[in-house]
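chain below, 274 aa
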Amino acid sequence: MKRDIISLKKTAQEIRAIVIAAIAEAGSGHTGGSLGLADVFTALYFNLLNHNPKQPNWKYRDRLVLSIGHVAPVYYASLAKAGYFSENELLSLIKLGSRLQGHPGRDHGLPGIELSAGSLGQGLSVGIGMALAGKIDDEKWKVCVILGDGELQEGSVWEAAMSAAHHKLDNLIAIVDRNFVQIDGTISSVMELEPLSDKLKAFGWQVFNCNGNDIQEFIETYHKALKIKEKPSIIIAETKMGKGVSSIENDYTWHGKAPSKTLANKFINEILKI
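prediction:
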């Protein structure tokens, strides 16, 4: 059952709180991007994707491919909230023997994982393979690939982008987490991507822009992408790294830094407005 906007916003905040608690317990993890993408993941798993937590390998499910595997904490939290496994397991993040490692792996036995992610620039190619298979078999399910804007500096992404347009993969929707920062600093200082929309259009994609931290706007944009025929779609979703914690928002130094447990409690209180 799809949740209404009020419920979705509450779920996104709960996911952010879980992310902070899990990363603080682990003493390691990517805080900033995980918080920034909480709204996108909430919209996908609780409103947009056709999936079944009780049957993770259901043939007719939509496939979600997380290319930026370092935001695994928000991925895991969303899967657990959706019912793929117990939320109690989330505090085992990155611990020895845990199914929840720093980057998601299909061989770890965690249900709902479509791609073993780690090296950037690979996810779009995998998603294209899935989408091609769906086309060949005349399936109705969709493939959603989540990319980071820093990841777009990888040449393999643009080779894949050409392939998707060439094959007219209208069953493929890519989402770019456009937070304008990466581990070394701002995107513009490391390697500028603009004019990003024009580049993607020139590669044959239907391009949409939206506020990735506005769940309603993101859902409306995704529905527009679903209607596109004869070409792949990409949503450039502008987000704030560290969204929900004012002191770390847009701060690239929180790309891969874990808060102390004391600071984590402060962050969680702010997120949940306690």
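The chain has a mean pLDDT of 96. The beta strands are 63-66, 143-148, 172-178, 181-182, 185-186, 206-211, 233-238.
thats it, cya
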